[in-house]
Write a structure and sequence with these properties.
This protein is of the alpha+beta class and about 160 residues long. The chain has 2 domains: about 30 residues; about 100 residues, no CATH class. Helix content is about 30%, strand content about 20%. The protein has 3 helices and 5 strands, in the order H-H-E-H-E-E-E-E. It has a 5-stranded antiparallel beta sheet with strand order 1-2-3-4-5, with no helix packed on it.
């Protein structure tokens, strides 16, 4: 690493030098921001190649969840061909996570439900759902099935 320094009297510091220094600082800040975005995107697990139960548990643990070793429920679902406005909120939740359920309209998916063992509030009975089509995670959520429960994406709150 090479570090160079220079001393200049304030009266010789011109607007051009100040503008160049500001430009360099902006470029460094932009590069840092890009690097942070790339690291965060790369830290998300790949939704492809999720074949076995262990793959599903590993996928959820990549988000920070500790879940039961086996699913508490497995269901085969049919994604509706046409979705009315009652699906808008759920579709938005999935889209915010990078999933596009509209691509799977009319297709069969399997929903694997796991019990979450480490929900931050300490609440018990919380569940994690993964929707899988042909070894690819196409959707998922964390929810509390209680009457006053909640529903949010896979990211740890």
């Amino acid at each position: 690493m090479l570090i160079m320094t220079a001393k200049m009297p304030r009266r010789k510091l011109t607007w051009g030098v100040a503008a160049a220094a500001l430009l360099c600082c902006c470029a460094i800040a932009l590069n840092f921001g890009q690097a942070v975005r790339e690291v965060s995107a790369s830290s998300l697990p790949s939704p492809k190649g999720v074949r076995s139960n262990q793959d599903r548990v590993d996928y959820l643990s990549a988000y920070g969840w500790q879940v039961s070793s086996d699913p508490i429920a497995t269901q085969e679902l049919l994604i509706p061909e046409e979705m009315d406005e009652s699906y808008d909120e759920y579709l938005a939740l999935q889209t915010d996570q990078g999933f596009d359920l509209k691509k799977y309209a009319g297709k069969r998916v399997k929903r694997y439900t796991y019990e979450v063992l480490n929900y931050p509030s300490g609440e018990t009975g919380v569940q994690a759902n993964l929707l899988i089509c042909k070894n690819t995670v196409v959707g998922g959520e964390i929810l509390s099935p209680r009457l006053d429960g909640f529903l949010h994406g896979l990211a740890m709150p």
